[in-house]
Amino acid sequence: MLGLALMQPATTFADTIHYYSVKSDKTGAGSNHDNDGATGDDSLAVGVKSKAAGRASSAVGYGNEVSGKYGVALGRENKVFDHGESSNAIGSRNEIHGKLSNAIGRGNAITEDIESGTAIGISNTVSGTYANAVGYRNKVLGKSSSAVGYYNEATENSSNAFGSDNKASKIMSSAFGSSNNALGDMSNAFGAFNAAVGRHSSAFGSNNKVGGESSHAFGEGNIVGSTSKNVLILGNNVKIGATRYSSSQNTFDGESDVSGAVALGNEAGVAVQGGVALGEKSVADRGKGTVGYDASGADHSNDTDGVWKATASAVSVGAPVRGAASVTRQITGVAAGSADTDAVNVAQLRQIAAASGAATYRFTLSDSATPSAHTVTLGQNTTPPDIKFVGTGGITAAVAGGVVTIGIDPASLGQPGTWNLQTDGGASVPVGTGNTVKFKNGDNIEITRTDREVTVAVAKNPTFKGKVTAKEGFDAAGHKVERVGAGEVSQASADAVNGSQLWGLTDRIAGYLGGGAKAGADGTLLQPTYKIRGSGYHSVGDALSAVDSELGKLYGNFGSVYEQMGELRSDVKNVGALSSALSALKPIQYDPVKPSQIMAGFGNYRDKWALALGVAHYVREDFMVHAGVSVSNHGESMANAGLTWRIGSREDAEAIPARYRKGPIGSVYVMQKENAELQARVASQAHEIAEMKERMAELERLLRASVKFR
């Protein structure tokens, strides 16, 4: 059409081309003023200072430069360099050095000789193959990495940063949210102001700092030191293995190795490796190897079976008893233990107390001369000891049926009618026939007389003060042993304990269990209640099982998220390939002789490709119907259809002669017809003029002849 229009007079060209103009005073070298900007084979350069040097490249707008073959620069001062094969820069001041890449917006840069990089937005930088940056001032340096949002950085392979001011700086690391840092290989930071420093570490929530390998923190304000591995925190303001994190130096202060620790609850703490703290402000500070209390005093320091000596660190549901700052909880719902390493409940302690109260303590009386001393220890003596009564110094002692009879040996009398009385090594006193010797009851001793027989017996209800000694134990005959003093509690002690000591033991156990567990007035252990995700659990085992179940669900959800992200990436690549193929369907200009068109296109995005087929039909020059469908190499499809009208001002249309109003292409055919008619008319007129010239010449000859004749 342009060539045909140039055949017309200058005034006719302005009448046939509308809404197209270039205004510039630049006419020097490189300005494209002389239509010399397109230097590559089959290239196109449209606009001031635009240059298309690559084969089949296009530069449209102001100051665009395309050196890579098949490259496209559209807008202002975009550049597609030599390695930018099949790359597209659209907008202003975008630069592309890699092939099959796209930069859309302002000031974006595909900085390296990479493949399939994408930068969309403002001032984004991409230098990794298959990498994407979308938003404002994002930087993507790793292969197959993405940064979406504002000021994000994904600097290693397969890293991702989404949100604002996030940094994913290690292989397969991810930072989502605001101001998060994923600084370890395969680390994850989700939320705000989190730092996942350790390898395989995770920080979820806000302001969590995780330095230990394979450690995870969920909540707010948690810290895990860099030397503490395999740590799990679920709560707020928990510090394990470090006291503070320095973001400027990426270091942890006050570090200690507390690997394997688990803390569930706000401000919980773990001070030993493998320790477990359950509940708010609970502290686990008792390490493995701790020997448990044994009332018998046996030494278990060298045990290896795990019954008396712990093989792992303790589980804490409270904090050590330190005055007002102590934290205690009951553990409720504890079933009676069966194995040596099981926890016991209040019912079992009650049974022990009942058995202790009903124990029988026996001793025997004899008149043997063999001396022996015995100590009766409540709850331990199984063989009853002997208590021996031996008569000496003129005193006789006889035992029969549990009755001790003390008498005077007549042969020992020093004088007829008198005898000497001595007790307990004191001075002897002569007793005459007129004297009366009185026997008084002593502590736990009852003395009775029948005629001349004096019976000395142990009281039916003896009261013991101080230490009770016996050889074969003590039989209380089913009665309570009251007023038992607090026995020594130590590894070597063999003393009896009283009810208050047992109650205290129950209370301490309840304190360690936490969760509302406490010792009842009768010494029973009231079960605790642990709240986990709104459900109550009354035993440590059930609570830990619930925690394990929730953690399993959480890790399962992580796997599902990664799987869905993989599917999303595949879908995005398929959509990119399908859309690219559809966008390749370009209808050519209207031709009234051939109003219908068939189009084909090919599209590729990373490792996905698609083919497209389309059709377009001009119902008339200003109205077109078109449709297309694309199919990927995996069978996915995408289709579109549309109608296109050419519209404009009615006044402008009416200003055009009626024969040209169908459109510029139709006008060309009208002008071709008119031109042929004009050429025929000109030829006819030329013939007529030639004839007229001949006739005028003949007339002139005749005129000259007549003058000469005269």
Q: Can you tell me about this structure?
A:
There is one protein chain. By secondary structure, this protein is α/β, with parallel strands linked by helices. The protein has a domain at 222-327. Helices cover 19% and strands 28% of the residues. It is built from 7 helices and 51 strands. The longest helix is centred in the C-terminal third of the chain and has 46 residues, at 664-709. It is rod-shaped and about 225 Å long.
Stretches where pLDDT is under 50 for at least 5 consecutive residues are 1-14, 373-381
What's the tally of helices?
7
End-to-end separation in angstroms reads 64 Å
The portion of residues assigned to helices is: 10-25%
Overall spatial form: rod-shaped
Q: What's the overall average pLDDT, rounded? A: 81
Strand content: 25-35%
Write the layout of secondary structure elements.
Elements: H1 2-6, H2 10-16, E1 44-46, E2 51-52, E3 58-62, E4 65-66, E5 72-76, E6 79-80, E7 88-92, E8 95-96, E9 102-106, E10 109-110, E11 118-122, E12 125-126, E13 132-136, E14 139-140, E15 146-150, E16 153-154, E17 160-164, E18 167-168, E19 174-178, E20 181-182, E21 188-192, E22 195-196, E23 202-206, E24 209-210, E25 216-220, E26 223-224, E27 232-236, E28 239-240, E29 244-246, E30 251-253, E31 262-264, E32 269-270, E33 276-278, E34 283-284, E35 315-316, H3 346-357, E36 364-366, E37 386-388, E38 395-400, E39 403-408, E40 419-421, E41 429-431, E42 445-450, E43 453-458, H4 499-513, E44 518-519, E45 525-526, E46 530-532, E47 535-537, H5 540-583, E48 596-605, E49 608-620, E50 623-632, E51 637-645, H6 650-655, H7 664-709
Parallel strand pairs: 1-3, 2-4, 3-5, 4-6, 5-7, 6-8, 7-9, 8-10, 9-11, 10-12, 11-13, 12-14, 13-15, 14-16, 15-17, 16-18, 17-19, 18-20, 19-21, 20-22, 21-23, 22-24, 23-25, 24-26, 25-27, 26-28, 27-31, 31-33, 32-34, 33-35, 36-37
Antiparallel strand pairs: 29-30, 38-39, 39-43, 40-41, 42-43, 44-45, 46-47, 48-49, 49-50, 50-51
